[in-house]
Amino acid sequence: MEEQIRNYILDMGVDGVGFACAQDYHSPKSYKITKLLPEAKSIIVLAFKPLSSCESPSMSAAQNGYLDLGSFARSASYRISRFLERNYKAKIATIPIAYPFEIHNDRKALADFSQRHAAVAAGLGSFGRHNLVIHPQFGTRVIFTSIITNLTLQPSPKCEDFCTQCNLCVENCPAHALDEAGKTDIRKCLGHSQPYGLMADITFQLQQLGRSPEEQKQMLMDEQYARLRQAAHLGNQYMCFNCLKSCPIGLA
Ligand code: B12
Ligand code: SF4
Ligand code: SF4
Q1: How many domains does the chain have?
Q2: Which residue, by CA, sits nearest to atom 4 of ligand 2?
Q3: Radius of gyration of the chain (CA)
Q4: Which residue among 61, 100, 150, 251 has the highest number of C-beta atoms inside a 10 angstrom radius?
Q5: 144: helix, coil or strand?
Q6: Which of 163, 187, 209 corresponds to the end of one domain?
Q7: Nearest Cα to 147, choosing from 86, 85, 102?
Q8: Which atom of ligand 3 is nearest to the CA of 167?
Q9: pLDDT per position as a tens digit, 75-119
Q10: Is 104 domain-assigned?
Q11: pTM here?
Q12: Do 39 and 138 reside in the same domain of the chain?
């Protein structure tokens, strides 16, 4: 069964796949996996290598590359899930690249499920100094989605540690968000990676308060508002990939 599932996934053009036993998934801050699928036994983790356009000096070209990846990943996940349901009568829960996830005041920027911890459990890489997962073939240039299932699948072997501690990711972070080992300073990273995200939107809304109608109109006609609208419409727009791009592993 594992071979059939693996072949189906790779034939579709997904770049990599790993299987994890649900019990091997340990993400202390995330929800228990049974909250997502009460009968969970295994996790199928899919690895997607971003197009070279994701490293374009043009941020719109780079973002479009990630949107392309996101569309393919969502469609692949859906087709694989249908394959599992039809052929093996499986129950499944699909986990997206990022959103949607539950939003609570005491769980800021915490997803329901951690793709990084799942990828490590499924033998698709090891944590690097930048807190991202380094894939044996693609290095850090890899995005994950997961399918939780009630099927019992033979887990893939775990990976060795690939990080050489060269510190390039830390030095190239413009926000100093990685200075403390084992922690990404979310507030610092967000300011750089999502300058038109939720925090920027809130700042804009607050700046509107108490302004005259003419001033409010000026603000709505400004490029900042158009950028916020574009980001809200397309989903989060990332403007910094330095930690991901500066890691030399997998480039040779
Ligand atoms: C919310 C989110 C963010 C938030 C906050 C993340 C956070 N809380 O850590 C912000 C906006 C800051 C962010 C930034 C980025 N993100 Co992001 N993000 C997510 C998302 C949606 C949820 C993450 C989450 O819940 N984390 C909270 C919990 C699970 O993490 P944690 O337990 O606190 O673990 C942290 C530490 O404990 C530590 N850690 C845990 N165990 C271990 C073990 C070892 C050995 C070490 C060293 C560290 C370590 O690492 C974690 C990071 O701080 C995931 C997708 C998903 N559903 O998983 C993508 C995801 C993590 N992001 C990703 C990426 C690529 C990025 C960015 C490069 C942005 C970009 N331009 O695309 C930056 C990189 C920042 C960085 N170097 O950490 C990828 C990572 C892929 C990979 N190869 O690992 C993911 C997995 C998306 C995906 N589907 O592939 N992200
Ligand atoms: S995405 Fe940019 S700001 Fe965020 S941790 Fe990576 S290098 Fe730093
Ligand atoms: S850039 Fe260097 S220190 Fe950072 S994750 Fe890659 S190998 Fe590790």
Answers
A1: 2
A2: 189
A3: 20
A4: 150
A5: strand
A6: 163
A7: 85
A8: 3
A9: 999 999 999 999 999 999 999 999 999 999 998 889 999 999 999
A10: yes
A11: 0.95
A12: yes
